[in-house]
Hints:
Blueprint: H1 15-26, H2 33-45, E1 50-54, H3 57-70, E2 75-79, H4 85-92, E3 96-100, E4 123-128, H5 137-147, E5 151-154, E6 175-179, E7 192-196, H6 199-209, E8 213-214, E9 221-222, H7 233-244, H8 246-268, E10 293-296, H9 303-312, H10 341-348, E11 349-352, H11 360-374
Parallel strand pairs: 2-3, 2-4, 4-5, 5-6
Antiparallel strand pairs: 1-7, 6-7, 8-9, 10-11
Helix pairs in contact: 1-7, 2-7, 3-4, 8-11, 9-11
Amino acid sequence: MSRKVRLAHPEIPEGALALVAQALRSGHLTSGEYVARLEERLSARLGGRHVILVSSGTTAALVAFHLLSDRGIERVLMPDFLFPSMASAARRVGLDVLLADIEPRLLSLPPDAIDRIPAGGRTAVLSVDQFGIPGHNPELERRTASIGLPWFEDAACALGSRDDAGSACATRSTVAILSFHPRKTLTTAEGGAVVTSDPDLAARARMLRNLGVAGQGTDRRFEMAGYNARMSELHAAVGLAQEAVLDELLERRRRIGRLYLERLDHLATHPDLPPGLSVPAGFRHPGSNFQSLVILLPASVSRHDVVARLAEDGVESTLPGFSIHAQPVFADLPCIGPVEHSPRLQESGLALPLHERMEPQDVEHVVEALQRALAPGK
């Protein structure tokens, strides 16, 4: 095994060490200059939206759901395929959850799911820009606005992605979240953000992340039941260093992603392999940031065996995510309509390595290893 290809391996610029050292020497390790600077940089990328940095993407979701609950929202419609912490966060603030199947092209909430929301109860709509593929965002904006429903965009994977109309993900919705986990396009090691154009929601999000405190100094008072959700200065310093080179990192990911698509197209039509290998169409969306690369394996193939065989060739891979209604803790959640595509993605999907450190030779190695893993009689 001569070559190893990791699932994720974030590029941390050398400048990050200097920024972290400066933050340490300042003695001001939270709620300071570096957090404010990163918020400003991200706001500029997102059309001037308010950006409130927090300690994780899940915490960002918790804050966002709290904001919606405070505005009288009682339940949320969300796609059945997303990271389970979103459903957990909704439940934690007392919201009921409705699930709908994803559509197979963009792997996102189909806009017509909104038409199937049962009567009764004030509802918010949550969509996901899955794996950095922009969802049906212009249409979701139009539909939710026309009937007065707040729209929550889970853009955790989508920093750097743009929708069909050219708008950055996280800029159309009532509220959105970002994640800065190491597998994302920008990482702070751990971290997240709430994004909104609503100044009242932004002010309340800032209070919620800081224990619900309003005011300064001796005028401080607790106005909300909040959280200790602050991002540290050290994490923000890492994010600042990455943000400075983010455009370059995104272009590297896109080059690797396009090469994957070309090679996987050849593999999908290989006469000696089981039929049925495919790549969801959304990865060909020109605005995708290639946060991840996910394939669907042939139905006749065991994913467990493929993962093991790839590992023998030094290639890391994993399941792409979860069908929410299939998780024991969420088995009681109602689904509006049949659910077909979400379970298929959980059962047969496979996430392949994709990160900015990869070279074309790594893609060739992964695809050749995948071909060997899929070969009959292997």
